[in-house]
Automatic annotation (TrEMBL):
Annotated Aspartate/ornithine carbamoyltransferase carbamoyl-P binding domain residues: 2-146
NCBIfam families: asp_carb_tr (TIGR00670), PRK00856.1 (NF002032)
Function recorded in the entry: Catalyzes the condensation of carbamoyl phosphate and aspartate to form carbamoyl aspartate and inorganic phosphate, the committed step in the de novo pyrimidine nucleotide biosynthesis pathway.
Reaction(s) this enzyme catalyzes, per UniProt: carbamoyl phosphate + L-aspartate = N-carbamoyl-L-aspartate + phosphate + H(+)
Family statement drawn from the similarity comment of this UniProt entry: Belongs to the aspartate/ornithine carbamoyltransferase superfamily. ATCase family.
Documented EC number(s): 2.1.3.2
Binding site for L-aspartate: K82, R178, R232
Complexes and interactors: Heterododecamer (2C3:3R2) of six catalytic PyrB chains organized as two trimers (C3), and six regulatory PyrI chains organized as three dimers (R2).
Keywords tagged on the record: Pyrimidine biosynthesis, Transferase
Entry protein name: Aspartate carbamoyltransferase
The UniProt record lists the keyword Transferase: yes
Residues bound to carbamoyl phosphate: R54, T55, R104, H134, Q137, G273, P274
Lineage start: Bacteria, Bacillati, Actinomycetota, Actinomycetes, Kineosporiales
Domain Aspartate/ornithine carbamoyltransferase Asp/Orn-binding: 164-311
Amino acid sequence: MRHLLSAADLDRDEAVLVLDTAEQMAQTQHREIKKLPTLRGRTVINLFFEDSTRTRVSFEAAAKRLSADVINFSAKGSSVSKGESLKDTALTLQAMGADAVVIRHGASGAPHRLATSGWIDSSVVNAGDGTHEHPTQALLDAFTMRHHLVGNREHGAAAGQDLKGKRVTIVGDVLHSRVARSNVLLLHSLGAEVTLVAPPTLLPQRVDAWPCATSYDLDASLPEADAVMMLRVQRERMNAAYFPSAREYSRRYGLDARRLRLLQDHTIVMHPGPMNRGLEISADAADCERSTIVEQVGNGVSVRMAVLYLLLAGGEREEVSR
Ligand code: CP
């Protein structure tokens, strides 16, 4: 694997390898080994043109735990605000020497452009591009589902396994969600059955071509689900045609205490964050015992360590759990 641009870059075996490697990374953390020397002398640049809390911080933590040098670049306060292009920004960073560039950008396709342009030599990791994809979010979500839904939840118990036959319901603003698209692609590769539940105005026009089912009826979908993933309503990308009323949206598509009672005992409640509490998810649901929302953030570090390790360690791979 040279780059990670899309969840579709990973077939079933490659996705399981990332998840198994993340298990090993998590074990090193549980053993309180603060740092692995694996990426000593390598440089990871975090290139963020859009705001982020979880993704940016966890990529930084992941790179540092692998002993890489980390350069954090934020478009705010940089020469991007003076009109500098992606190409000139990339050439500038290339001159500083980067082994991996982790990029978040508002334009769908920007990571692909960076990876294929010839402007830089480094590996490129998509940390979220426009409404297109967010593959490491899908990987950390699958890692979390595997822990809860496969095996006996002990660390490493799910090694080598996929999510065959598990039912995942993804709810809400699919139209603007890069998380939804990456999850559908990855979960399909891992054998899970995905249902997207959304109002008609918040489903993409060509969703019929996605490898999943669709529904407008949340109450009917919840009792079937092993995992329910609520999506953030991206009001900054909306107009009234998509989203007439917050109260109506919550009533039809919000997860609240009444809807929690429709779930099976083992079903987990997920959200990629950041959440609009009281809109797509109530405080009852966000903070309930079956919520994995905080756990997902922690798992993001292990998964991103695995991705950087598999991209950069190459032939020098060593047994990371040692
Ligand atoms: N889930 C996610 O991508 O969160 P951030 O925008 O905080 O990185």
